[in-house]
Amino acid sequence: MTSSFDSSRFDSPVPRGGAKPAPKSKPLWLQSAILIGTFTMLLYVIEIVDVASDERLEENGVGPRSIDGLWGVLFAPVLHDDWAHLFANTVPLLVLGFLVLLSGIARGLAATGIVWVVGGLGTWLTGGSYSNHIGASVLIFGWLAYLLVRGIFARSLGQILVGVVVFVVYGSLLWGVLPSAPGVSWQGHLFGAVGGVVAAWLLSADARKQRARKAVGPQSFG
């Protein structure tokens, strides 16, 4: 006896009587814009609090190889040295964050989480002794790397084209992963980018598995 899978069994029930249909969800682009816009506004609120507290908040960045400095892995990306630091990060944060979230909110948040942790831990392990690393640039470099390589891992033409455009506009930022001027956390830039590559690899696993199944093809048994 055989039976076929009926996906309609999992569809939402048809409303009866005077029941109102479920409201339509916002389009993905609008959800992405609201989410990254809200996050950016949060950074400005935090900077206002930091200024009001005589810049004590920014002392909670990544402190390399210090147990207390590990807390900075959580806090560093939302802290900035001053308004100029935050202003410099705002536009790339909005643009790259929006593009990452356009791949799906859950996927975009997962990529951000991976970048956040890998970038922070890498900075904690390799940063200069007694230094303090803060700034959303770890996310910017992570998102940039993610957008550049995800299409290659997933072999998605659309994602590759997005990566090309992103490289043309923001590719020059990649020089920031190299040691440069004092006071610039190139370690955060470097390991943020590493986190972006890791995220792209991990989150393209489903596409790679589908490709592998197609390569093997259907199997028949006699």
Description of the structure:
By secondary structure, the protein is mostly helical. It has one domain: Rhomboid-like fold (Up-down Bundle). The chain is built from eight helices and no strands. The chain has helices spanning 28-52, 72-75, 83-101, 105-126, 137-154, 157-170, 186-203, 205-216. Helix 1 packs antiparallel against helix 3 (83-101), helix 3 packs parallel to helix 5 (137-154) and helix 4 packs across helix 5 (137-154). The longest helix is centred in the first third of the chain and has 25 residues, at 28-52. The protein starts with 27 loop residues before the first helix and ends in a 6-residue tail after the last helix.
Q: Strand pairing plus helix content: what structural class?
A: mainly alpha
Give me the CATH superfamily: Rhomboid-like
Distance between the termini: 20 Å
Q: How many helices does DSSP assign?
A: 8
Radius of gyration: 22 Å
Mean pLDDT: 89
How large a portion of the residues is in β-strands, by DSSP E? under 5%
CATH domain class: Mainly Alpha
The string of secondary-structure elements, in order, is HHHHHHHH
Uncertain parts: 1-12
Sheet bearing the most strands, described?
none
CATH-scheme architecture: Up-down Bundle
Structurally, the number of domains stands at 1
Q: Can you give the helix content as a percent range?
A: 55-70%
Describe the global form: globular
- Report the count of strand segments: 0
* CATH topology type: Rhomboid-like fold
